[in-house]
Each structure stands twice: as structure tokens, then as C-alpha cells.
Write a structure and sequence with these properties.
Layout (H helix, E strand, L loop, with lengths): L9 E6 L5 H15 L6 E3 L8 H13 L4 E6 L5 H14 L3 E5 L18 H12 L4 E6 L10 H13 L4 E6 L3 H13 L6 E5 L5 H11 L5 H10 L3 H21 L4 E5 L4 H11 L6
Parallel strand pairs: 1-2, 1-8, 2-3, 3-4, 4-5, 5-6, 6-7, 7-8
Helix pairs in contact: 1-10, 3-4, 4-5, 8-9, 9-10
This protein binds flavin-adenine dinucleotide.
Length: 287
């Protein structure tokens, strides 16, 4: 595969904004734990259509207030240009210099994704570059197992290329458990001249029911042998987590050994599973 490891690798973590003040208090504790390993940055998700807007702001403000490198997500579907401009202007003033730019999926009941001024993430990336120049480093989403709505792998790749050419600096993938899907995707990108860093998104395995639900929705495959083992653990959470840790640890090792330019952890607001992986992989720690 084309080696991407010439770049300085980034090891980042992702959070979502909690719904309640209690959740926010708990998250602060988890952030302190995660920050002990000095991730390259902490990203904070954003609900399409502005559904988490204020909570995303609150989480981003807290991180910035604690001098933690922060990358807010921004999802464009269902939003007007004026709204996106206002949010990005706020981030620019706060000194934010990195964004994860997405189309997003509108929650059901919010119009099916057709409202607003943007249809696809490439339009958002173009808008950010037109209005904000090089203020932000822009990460976009990539799908080694292909986006669930894509007509064909070829079209999905062409759409990804369009988004990259609109001005993305790097991509973060949807999670996956088959490293070959990642390596094949990077190779396909290389063949069409897309050579930006593609950082694997890593989902620790801690809860089978939740993982199965997410995976169905986002088109990430849980290999049959993994699924069968996870199902068989039932309520035995400890054994499930130990097995999940080994599966994801091996995945990460293969990715790093194969030249992946970093890892992005979907922490689900729990520091423990990510920190265990971090430690067992001996990822960079603060000096
Ligand atoms: P796009 O790149 O626009 O692609 C969406 C679909 O449209 C694909 O099938 C693509 O092939 C097709 N397509 C793209 N461009 C065109 C075009 N010009 N013409 C025709 N078809 C096109 N969701 C949130 O709501 N909030 C978040 O914070 C969030 N964070 C995420 C972080 C990461 C790292 C990832 C991988 C996903 C995240 N998501 C988030 C989920 C994401 O919003 C969904 O997967 C969404 O369905 C697609 O977003 P996208 O930016 O990849 O869209």
C-alpha cells in the first residue's frame, strides 16, 4: 500500500456533547483522563440541523478554556449559509484552527436531508475555503467500506475525491474491523491521485447491542466471527470487553504497521477503553 507514514502521525480522540449537566460533569472527568496522554486534538461532534449546537459550543468552550487542542465537527445538511458562517466566525475568533467538516444526517422528522443550503460535504468544504481561506485545517469523513447511500464504490470514491479537491487537508474514516478494507481504500485513493492522510477511525468494543445498532446504521461491518463471539458473551461484560480490546488492539497494530498516518478514537465519552489501547500500543505520551 502507499505509505502515508512520512507525515507526523496524529492520534486524536472524539467526544459527543452530553445532554445533561450531570453528563457534562462526568465528561470533564473523562477529558482529564484522556488529556493525560496528550492526544493531538479532541474533536466534538455536532448534530446536523443544529440539533446539538449549544451543547457542542459548551463542550468546545470548556476544552478551549483548558488549553486543549479542539476540533469541532460541523455538519451542513439542513443549515443555511448564514448559520454556518456565524458558527465558523465564532470558532475563528476563539482561535480554533481545525474542523471536521461533514454533511451529517438529519434526525428523522427534520426533513430527510433536503432542506438548507448544502447538499453534500464537498459544498461545505468549498464554502469554508471561499469564506475563511486557510484559517482552518479541514478533516473530512472517508468510508473504507463505502458510505451506505453511495450508488457504487466507484461513485463514492469520485465523491470523496471531489470533497478532497474542494480543500480538505486530511480524512478520518468511519470505523471498521477489517484492516484490508482500509488498505484497499487507501490504494484506490492513491490510484485516482488522492494522497492526503487518511486516518483510521477506531471504535473500541464495549457494548454489543449498541455497536450492532450503530454498525447497521452506518454500514460498518462487524466480522461474523467477532459478532458471534460478542453475542455469546451475553451479560458477561468483562469478558466481552477483554475480547473486544484484543480485537481492536490487533486491528490498530496492523494499521500502524501498514503505514496508517495515525488513529482517531471514537471514545463514546468513555476514557477507559481508549486509554487501554493507547497504553498497549505505546502511542506517544507527553514529554
Ligand atoms: P458526503 O461526503 O457529502 O457523502 C454523503 C453521501 O453522498 C455519500 O454516499 C457520497 O458518495 C454522496 N455524495 C457526496 N458528494 C456528492 C455529490 N456532490 N453528488 C452526489 N453524491 C454525493 N454526523 C453528524 O451529524 N455529526 C457529526 O459530528 C459527525 N461526525 C462524523 C465524524 C466522522 C469521522 C465520520 C466518518 C462521520 C461523522 N458523521 C457525523 C456521520 C456523517 O455525517 C454521515 O456518515 C453522513 O451520512 C455523511 O457525511 P459525509 O460528510 O461523509 O457526506
Amino acid at each position: 500500500m502507499p505509505l502515508q507514514s512520512q507525515q507526523t502521525p496524529t492520534y486524536s480522540v472524539e467526544l459527543f456533547p452530553p445532554k445533561t449537566p450531570e453528563g457534562m460533569e462526568k465528561l470533564k472527568h473523562e477529558i482529564a483522563e484522556l488529556n493525560s496522554v496528550s492526544p493531538s486534538y479532541v474533536s466534538v461532534t455536532y448534530g446536523a440541523g443544529g440539533s446539538t449546537r449549544d451543547r457542542t459550543f459548551e463542550t468546545v468552550d470548556w476544552l478551549r478554556g483548558h488549553h486543549i487542542e479542539t476540533a469541532p465537527h460541523i455538519a451542513c445538511v439542513g443549515s443555511a449559509r448564514t448559520e454556518i458562517r456565524e458558527i465558523l466566525g465564532r470558532y475563528r475568533e476563539q482561535g480554533i484552527r481545525r474542523l471536521v467538516a461533514l454533511r451529517g444526517d438529519l434526525p428523522s422528522g427534520m426533513g430527510g436531508g433536503t432542506g438548507g443550503d448544502f447538499r453534500y460535504a464537498n459544498e461545505l468544504v468549498t464554502f469554508i475555503r471561499d469564506e475563511f481561506g486557510d484559517t482552518f485545517k479541514i478533516e473530512v469523513a472517508a468510508y473504507p467500506e463505502y458510505h451506505p447511500q453511495s450508488g457504487s464504490p466507484e461513485r463514492d470514491l469520485a465523491n470523496f475525491k471531489r470533497k478532497v479537491e474542494a480543500g480538505a487537508d486530511a480524512a478520518i474514516t468511519q470505523y471498521f474491523y477489517n484492516p484490508d478494507a482500509y488498505f484497499a481504500f487507501v490504494e484506490s485513493c492513491d490510484r485516482v491521485g488522492v494522497t492526503l492522510p487518511i486516518i483510521p477511525g477506531i471504535m473500541p468494543i464495549t457494548n454489543y447491542t449498541q455497536l450492532a445498532r450503530f454498525s447497521d446504521a452506518c454500514g460498518a461491518e462487524i466480522p461474523r466471527w467477532v459478532r458471534r463471539r460478542l453475542e455469546a458473551y451475553g451479560d458477561d461484560v468483562e469478558s466481552l470487553r477483554a475480547f473486544g480490546h484484543e480485537v481492536v488492539l490487533k486491528l490498530c497494530r496492523r494499521l500502524i504497521d501498514g503505514g496508517a498516518p495515525g488513529l482517531h478514537f471514537y471514545t463514546m465519552n468513555q476514557s477507559g477503553p481508549t486509554l487501554r489501547l493507547w497504553q498497549d500500543l505505546a502511542l506517544p505520551r507527553p514529554a
